[in-house]
Amino acid sequence: MKKYLVWLAAFVFLAGIAAGCGSSVDENKPLAEINAEAAKMDEAALKKQIEAYKKAIEAKSAEVDKAVAKVKQISPDKILSDESKKLKDTLSGLETSLTKLKDGMAAYTKALNTKK
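The structure corresponding to this sequence follows.
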């Protein structure tokens, strides 16, 4: 039993390390900081970061689509309800987040194009 727990702990540890090794996407990072970071990166790192942003954008787009579908399902008599307002605020936040992700990816793409 002890051997099993040791192996399980080792697996969890390695999985955590592997998950942390991927490129991180921070939608709240200022564009000036992204541009400075991108200028120091090589082509491979830029491509990796762009791919990470593509995945994040796809995931965020799916969230936006779900929120839009929920907003469209609101009946006319409930448009001014608190639930409706919360849903619209959530959608607005998701759209802002998506815009930030797209701007970040554009900055990395621009840096990659200047390196070629």
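Helices lie at 2-20, 31-40, 43-72, 82-115.
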